[in-house]
Amino acid sequence: MSSSFRSSAPRPYQSYVYAYPHKTAYRPFPEGGRPALSERWAGERKDALSLYLHIPFCEVRCGFCNLFTRIGAPDELTTRYLDALDRQGTAVRDALGDDEPVRFAAAAFGGGTPTFLTAGELDRLCDIAEKRMGADLRAVPLSVETSPATATADRLTVLVERGATRLSIGVQSFVDEEARAAVRPQRRADVESALARIRDARTPVLNIDLIYGIAGQTERTWRLSLDAALAWQPEELYLYPLYVRPLTGLGRAGETADRAWDAQRLRLYREGRDHLLSHGYEQVSMRMFRRSDAPPQGPDDYACQTDGMIGLGCGARSYTSTLHYSFDYAVDMREIRGIIDTYTATEDFSRAEVGREVDEDEARRRHLLQSLLRAEGMEVAGYRERFGRHPVEDFPSELDHFGSLGWLDESAGPDRLRLSADGLAYSDALGPELFSPAVRADMAAYELK
Ligand code: SF4
């Protein structure tokens, strides 16, 4: 039996670590003590920044979703939102200054659903990225998230003309009953039409998101969704375990995770992984798979432990090497609406409002976490070059524990730390073990709203 089923093994689905520290460890800076962006960006490297524009609107709120987004956008809200993005972009670009070269190496529009915006509004969004921030969208990788209902030909045309190189669509399941069970009603025929429009748009990279662990999903129906996705030969596929999170639609429905559900998700994960590996895909991380012959997306695409992120919009994070910041965060719909309204009324974007200082200990954790969770693992030399020590000196008990659970690949040799197949499967249990005590305490004390 695989070690993953040993009773001593931690629960596999604890926390998806896509950014460290998590936003629930951010805190509002005190009035009068808000960091000035111009001071915090002074002296930072700015020649390979990432730009992220966040659009917090969706047509429906999926039952599993805890992202910062609201349904619909009444009363010219999208115009007010774009006006605010424009003001924020101007203020942030001013704060970056011109003493050193400012260059964006990658850009992304996420959400929510950026294509909730009309074609004309998307054009304006690109203008904000280019004219306010100075990003050359046609020269760098530009990733845009979309949904089946909003991936319309006019919107896709604008995005492709403006330089989109990657379109990512959340399908979740090609089985209509499963889509309903995950509180995301959609018809397969509409999904297939949207995929056809995306392929007609001819971006280099199509990504399809699928979810496993939905009520009623079986090995057979999971395989059906995988094969339906593979029929489009997507350059990338993300396979997400379903989470039931507090305050989301499914969370309110009272579903609880249990060991049987863990086992179902692990089974479907392995089934999905093996199926994709046997169909010409490589595993990049627990969730991400890339077609082996897919065009490269540039050197920066998954080097997410690097600093230098500019996020615009009320749900976007920004990172300097020592400060992570954003705006207020919520999952509950009413709270989100209030935060969006506050954002659209904001005139002064020159200071960080909510965030966390990142010291060297946190930077080490972040580097290890975000490298180790990639299938290729972490080069010890890169860590040593940045921090002057071997990771085993910094994280002896954690790495020892991972080793004892069979999560480290012994065959990786002394120059690389790499997860075993089981380690990758348990990424969402392993990641949280590397959180610092201070971040853990703040996350635990955070009152979800
Ligand atoms: S999963 Fe995507 S489409 Fe669904 S509510 Fe969340 S952001 Fe919107």
TrEMBL record:
One of its GO terms (molecular function) is 4 iron, 4 sulfur cluster binding. SMART domains: Elp3. It comes from the Bacteria. This is Heme chaperone HemW. One of its GO terms (biological process) is porphyrin-containing compound biosynthetic process. CDD domains: Radical_SAM. It holds the Pfam family Radical_SAM. SUPFAM superfamilies: Radical SAM enzymes. PROSITE patterns: RADICAL_SAM (PS51918). One of its GO terms (cellular component) is cytoplasm. Residues 43-282 form the Radical SAM core domain.
